[in-house]
């Protein structure tokens, strides 16, 4: 079994795409899973969800549940499947409900500020 820990991410976190700030939060969660890099989950209330369009893509994690994916849509570009959320996580990961995480890339930056 992979060890997964979730705790409040220290400080303030920001996600940007295409130069636009999609959100900032002091209530983000940091998830660590085995040897994988930590992932920052933002409360949906702190994200400009109007820029996120739900896609048909879903993925399944046996430890967290089924993830719904979102593309980031702004005036200049669309970043396909750039974010994900567990709409109905397994009970052990219930803390993730209502949070969204982003795949860092050339066009998507997640950083502590």
Helices and strands, with pairings:
Blueprint: E1 4-8, E2 13-17, E3 20-25, E4 29-33, E5 39-43, E6 52-61, E7 65-73, E8 78-85, E9 99-102, E10 108-112
Domain DUF427: 15-104
Pfam families: NTP_transf_9
Protein name: DUF427 domain-containing protein
Summary tags:
DUF427 domain-containing protein, globular, about 110 residues, mainly beta, Metal Binding Protein, Guanine Nucleotide Exchange Factor, Chain A, three-stranded antiparallel β-sheet, DUF427
Q: How is this structure best described in words?
A:
- With 113 residues, the chain is mostly beta strands.
- It has a single domain, classed as Metal Binding Protein, Guanine Nucleotide Exchange Factor, Chain A.
- The protein has strands at residues 4-8, 13-17, 20-25, 29-33, 39-43, 52-61, 65-73, 78-85, 99-102, 108-112.
- The protein has a seven-stranded antiparallel beta sheet with strand order 1-4-5-9-8-7-6, with no helix packed on it. Strands 3-2-10 form a three-stranded antiparallel beta sheet, with no helix packed on it.
- β2 and β3 (20-25) form a beta hairpin.
- The chain starts with a strand and ends with a strand.
Helix content: under 10%
The 3D shape can be described as: globular
At the first level of CATH, the class is: Mainly Beta
Q: What is the makeup of the main sheet? A: 7 strands, antiparallel
Spatial strand order of the main sheet: 1-4-5-9-8-7-6
Helical run tally: 0
Return the string of H and E elements.
Answer: EEEEEEEEEE
Low-confidence stretches: none
Average predicted local confidence, pLDDT: 94
Tell me the number of structural domains: 1
Using the coordinates shown, work out and report the CATH topology: Metal Binding Protein, Guanine Nucleotide Exchange Factor, Chain A
Which structural class should the secondary elements be placed in? mainly beta
CATH H-level superfamily: Domain of unknown function (DUF427)
The second-level CATH architecture is: Beta Complex
Q: Could you tell me the radius of gyration in angstroms?
A: 13 Å
Pfam families: NTP_transf_9
Protein name: DUF427 domain-containing protein
Domain DUF427: 15-104
Organism: Ruegeria profundi
């Amino acid at each position: 079994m992979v060890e997964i820990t979730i705790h409040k991410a220290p400080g303030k976190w920001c996600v940007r795409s295409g130069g636009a700030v999609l959100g900032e939060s002091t209530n983000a969660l940091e998830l660590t899973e085995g040897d994988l890099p930590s992932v920052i989950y933002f409360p949906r209330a702190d994200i400009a969800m109007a820029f996120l369009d739900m896609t048909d893509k879903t993925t399944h994690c046996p430890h967290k549940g089924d993830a719904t994916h979102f593309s980031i849509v702004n005036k200049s570009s669309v970043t396909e499947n750039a974010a994900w959320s567990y709409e109905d996580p397994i009970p052990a990961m219930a803390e993730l409900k209502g949070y969204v995480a982003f795949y860092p890339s050339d066009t998507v930056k997640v950083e502590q500020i």
